[in-house]
Design a protein that fits this description.
Helix content: 40-55%
Number of helices: 8
Radius of gyration: 16 Å
Distance between the termini: 20 Å
Low-confidence stretches: none
Shape: globular
Strand order of the largest sheet: 3-2-1-4-5-6-9
Order of helices and strands: EHEEHEHEHEEHHEHEH
Length: 218
């Protein structure tokens, strides 16, 4: 299987790269990024792409791959509300629409988040925009669409791009794992679950944190 990963310098995307390298079923991983990544491996290809609202010129890349992991994202605390919606919703929809035109059989996996609000009425921009993005992706009627909703992601590797807010939670994860085990998922386990979904499919479009943990352990 050949996959494309966005957000390859972030917590989830970087871990997907690591796990894809270890996965014999993944023959090639294309990192679609704005700047070169530090990971080097024969499986990894890098495409420098600056405009995530425009994918013209990437049609052949889409045609030659089986799936895309959309892990590009940013914390709502790091940007304005308008910027957050552009990055979370507009970028995602532009990519999904381009893929649907170039390669309708390609799987698209959107890294959403626990608490995403399908009613789009939440007062929290994260929940509202993630829910809106999921809803619009579903309306596109992609043949293979998956929206994963990890909750608290416990970092297994240090990542310089981790937001300040997420760094504050790191010391609390051992407590969360005891009191709210279904709330926490380790970053490597999340990446394993994502790859298993892409390889084996899922009977659900929206996959919550508990199901992701079960997938990674199966």
């Amino acid at each position: 299987m050949k996959i494309i990963v966005t957000g390859a310098t972030g917590l989830v995307g970087a871990e997907v790269l690591r796990q894809a390298i270890l996965d014999d079923d993944i023959s090639e991983v294309t990192a679609l990024v704005r700047k070169p990544i530090e990971v080097s491996h024969p499986k990894i290809k890098t495409i420098i792409h600056n405009d995530f609202l425009d994918y013209s010129g990437l049609e052949e890349v889409f045609k030659s791959n089986d799936a895309m992991v959309w892990a590009l994202g940013i914390s709502q605390t790091q940007v304005s509300k308008q910027q957050y919606e552009v990055i979370t919703y507009d970028y995602t929809m532009a990519a999904a629409t381009a893929i649907q035109k170039a390669n309708p059989d390609m799987a698209f996996l959107f890294v959403s988040g626990g608490g995403a609000d399908s009613t789009e009425r939440s007062s929290t921009i994260f929940a509202r925009v993630k829910g809106k993005t999921e809803n619009t992706l579903i309306k596109l009627e992609l043949k293979r669409l998956y929206c994963v909703r990890p909750a608290g992601i416990k970092p297994i590797h240090k990542n310089p791009n981790t937001s300040f807010l997420n760094k504050l939670f790191i010391p609390l994860f051992p407590i969360f794992e005891i009191l709210m085990p279904n709330f926490v998922i380790a970053s490597d386990k999340l990446a394993i679950a994502i790859l298993r979904i892409l390889k084996n499919g899922s009977d659900k479009i929206i996959i919550e944190n508990k199901a992701l943990k079960e997938l990674s352990a199966s």
